[in-house]
Fold each of these.
Amino acid sequence: MCRWSYAHVSLLGMRKQGFVWLSLCFGLVCGLFCPALRAQITVTVPASGGTPAMNWYMGLGGTWRFQPGDSPEVNGRFLWASQEYNDSGWAKMELRSSSRVIDPVYGGGGYIRGWSALGYPKLAGYAWYRVQIHLKHADSNLWIKMPDHVDDGYQVFANGKLIGSFGKFTSRGVAIYRSRPMDFELPAPDAGGNIELAIRFYLSPLSAVDAGTHSTGGMHELPVIGSHGTTALLIKQETQERILDQTLVASVSFLMMLAAVGFFCFWIYDRSERTYLWLMFALFSEATVEFILLAGLFSFWLTQDEANAPALVVPSVAMFFWLLFWEDWFGIWDKRLSRWVRWTGLASVLLAVGSAIVMVRLDASYRGGYSAAEVSLRWAQMNVCVSFALGALVLVTLFQAYFKDRVGALMAMVPIVLTVVGFYGTNLRTWWKIHTNHFFASGLNLRLGDVAGFLLVIVLAVLVGRRFLDTRIEEQLRKQTIEQDLEQARALQQQVLVPEPIESGSFAVKTAYYAARTVGGDFFQAVPRPDGSLVVVVGDVSGKGMAAAMLVAVLVGAARTKIEETSDPVEILKMLNERLLGRASDHFATCVVAHLRPGGVMVIANAGHLQPYRNGVEMELQGSLPLGLVVGVEYEAVSVQLEADDYLTFMTDGVVEAQNASGELLGFERVEALAGLEPESIAKAAMEFGHEDDITVVCVRVRAGAVLQAAERRVGEAT
């Protein structure tokens, strides 16, 4: 029988006319010599008046006739579909179902092995089933429900007429879909109560070489005849079972998609962290292909090739992104080796895409013969080898990560190994007959890929949460260390900047200082001299934070050192300018220096700073460039005779530029109204208005007695 079938398949390459005559002669001989060998199934319909009972149905199990290849056409009709054609010369095909045999793809009992396991292991393309149904007690209103699981498309003929099909059969080829149950109305039986049933099947080369169950081709369940209500109810039941079967797939895919969106948000939050971007692509690619397969399973939007094409490529694409993710996550490869690994992975993806395109095109252009199926098998093997190489690279990456992060690598190893096995489970069955991909429990289809995906999402959540907590702890410790350092710097700055209130016979000095941050960029000094005079230095370094505070320390130290040598404001400003040049980078500083003598004479020089206030009125003094901008700046000093009880107010721009919520500045007019108040009052008024800069206020009151004594001395010297 097998020798004849292969010879018949080889005849598909003969010219159509010779094949038609040969088939006609063969059919005539069979009709003359073998009339009694036609397969027949007798069906007794429990009904009266020719109408079947509402809940009655019967599986068409028994001996069928089977013929590989395709029927010749006579006058546009298939010869093998005609009621008169004698199929007694065809091979016998026993279609028996058993509840103990579970469908390895869709689950459920009653599985029937396909023709590849029944003597035709290399048959792809067309093949025909025929059987004669002999009806008792019924003459109409019967429907036939075709199996839920078939390979791949079919056309159903009853008494020579096409009554229905699954797939689109055209002269250019066959467009097939993921199998699902269909029912068609049977015609009335002939006078003898017979219906000649012929089914033309088409098996794609990809399905033939896949041989995931070693049993492809034809029907994997018995066709059922019964009333229309019964067949419709059976279809509804099988559809519900299919939904239950795919519940886990859909749930895991949805979980992966949510995780992908979450990790994409992480990447948006921190664009420098590419790890989450690779993770998003890996999860998204796996979830997307599952949704595509589900769409092909429950709709006719996508043909089987269109739905399966992503499944041929996604394992390689997903593994490539998993490779990028784990490499970045553990940071185990050096730069040169990392580049080699990534280019190798990318080349593997391109090879997998190319092989998938070739397989799909071969499948779409298939015209018969097993050679094309063999070519598809070779490309499929290349596709799997390339994808498996990527999986091996991922496992090697995790093995290397074990020496860096033992806990994280061990957690990731289990779901990744299951993912690799799940990706290539079909191919393991094809090549080594290892059944690994499907397990069934309470109607649920437990695929290793779905179980691995669920575990992987959990492991990723744990790893990301673990790293997040570790990072937060490290950041908290770092923040505490910085805060401690800043607090120490603030305390030191307070000790250096803020002098004790000065009360002498000549002057009374009060200050207020508030930094916008922990440390500030304002600086001021009020240094009494041995001769009873007072040197006041008030300034502001551009910028904020630690950089400005470092420059403040430099300027304060330099000012105090220079004041020990001289009290001349011009000399002090020159020295501060030289000290700041070359050290300030993009920073500069404004500064005002005043030397107040006990007799009431004040010598003052200004380097770009706010003018001081005398008794609440802004003084008009000569200004100059700020410190740290130009070498050799000349500063001019002005001498002012102060009166008894004069009140001098020095401040930084943090007071004038205090800004409220609506963006309005405190301004010079309001500041001039405040200038006669105590330093704390001025500072609090500015802060309540709304400040974002450091605030410094230094107030000096000239004692009346000191001025009178100086005046008396001058009068005495004149007389």
Note: The first helix runs from residue 2 to 10.
Amino acid sequence: MTLKKISRWQLKNKYFFASVAVFILVILRSFVFRLIGNESVYLLPARRLIDPTFLANDWTVGAGAGGGSLSIVFSSLMTPLWLLLKDSLAVALTGRVLVWILLLYALARLGKQLEIQWYAFTFGIGIWLFSGQSLAAGEWMFGGVEQKCLAYAFLILSLASLIQSQIIRAGIFCGLSICCHVLVGGYGAIALTTALLVCRREYGFWRVVKFALTAAVIGLPLLLIAIQYTALGSSSDIPVQPGINIESFLVVFRNPHHLDPNYFLDPKRLIEVILYGICTYFAVTLTVARAKAKLLLAFLGVLLAIFIAGLVARQVEAFWFLEYYPFRVADTLLPLIFWLTMPALIIQQGQMLLRRPEFKPNHSPLMIPLTLLMAVPIVWQVPGVVLEMGRASKRFIPSIWQYTTQTEDTFEEISHWIRDYTEKSATVIVHPCKSNFWITAERAMVVNQKAAPSNVRVLEWHHRMVNLNGNKKFKEVGFEICEELEANFPYLDLQHLLSIRQAYDADYYLTTVRRTDLEKTLIYHNRDYYLYDLSGYSLQLGQLR
């Protein structure tokens, strides 16, 4: 075995152990034994590939209002897990682990290509994980299993391959990223192609064309599906209501936490974004080889330019642009690259301060105070990271206990009763923010808050949401509307409740309040929830037949 091979093995081995260490941190942070995030929504299309009759009577699922066709690649990859494991939680947990492994492999490849020390890689990625993973718009990679996580993994692999000048491989990875998530992959493809154009002297113009064509050919089918889905307009069975701008409704009401900078970007956050951008520029420039740094900075520059375009779009109310998540990719990749390179810069300057013999200073003396200035985000984040690690351990350990002792919370318990003792074709009037109901009860909902369509069908989604809020207009936006529903949904007027039953062909009403006016129809309850059978009620008389 030559010294060169031994050296390569040691480098790989160090990154392997670094990835294992980061994987343990990811487990601590996100491996809770319950469905999290949007898993209850994004795992459904995979199950429906196996059994198309599953929840076929649900408006969102059966009518395709939730955009299940957009996740066809992700769903196809998840289908074997459904076939093997059957149980939704087992599918989610296994899917998380597999996606996390792919993400860590992609990050390790990128770290090695940027020649980041393995210990700097471990520290930096660990801080990034527990500092929130994003700048402002709430984006993330490591969490529940979703198609965007796979898209980020392939996008990072594409970037690492471009740094290695593996053009065809990079194009294939970029195309796969588009197939997994059109927006993540699409913005990534724009940024990578533009970065290659900036670096065309190093790569050559025809390599740019080769990369772009490869990515486009692979990603085109999903792009066409996305265009067809979002372009659904007044020709559908849902008339467009006069005076309602669907784009502004999606941005300001439905997804302000991701799409509306007036909602998520206060002045303090904006300053933080600017500082991250400046510090990332210096960290990359001073730690990464010049040619690689040029490509990486051009890539990040395009993503940041799209982010800035989103800020401008909000000021001129260009909601047609904002509805396509311009903040998404930069929101997570900019802090990722910062935390990937900043610890390496600190170590590099530390070596100079310690006057290590093998260190050859090639920067001006101003680099030391500049490095200390750029280290401020690390010092600033550490207390929050420590607190988040404490909170994560408090989530992780109880979830293990709950899983091993087969302890169910009251909502899961009554959902499982509904699954076991009601007809499969039943539709339940249930709190829209209880998105896990689909998976745990395996019954149709009138509407699911998390599964809002991204086209004209969002008007019907909103109409159903208002209906379940007692026909009261929402005062809040985004996830805050769940608090209003919590106050109004359990107390729906009997006549209004029966009108909902007739309008949506609903059979049962699940609420947190014991209703004296429905007492005769109570069929099951536990400590917190009450299930009423509405099928015996006459709408006209508001009484039992």
Note: The mean pLDDT is 87.
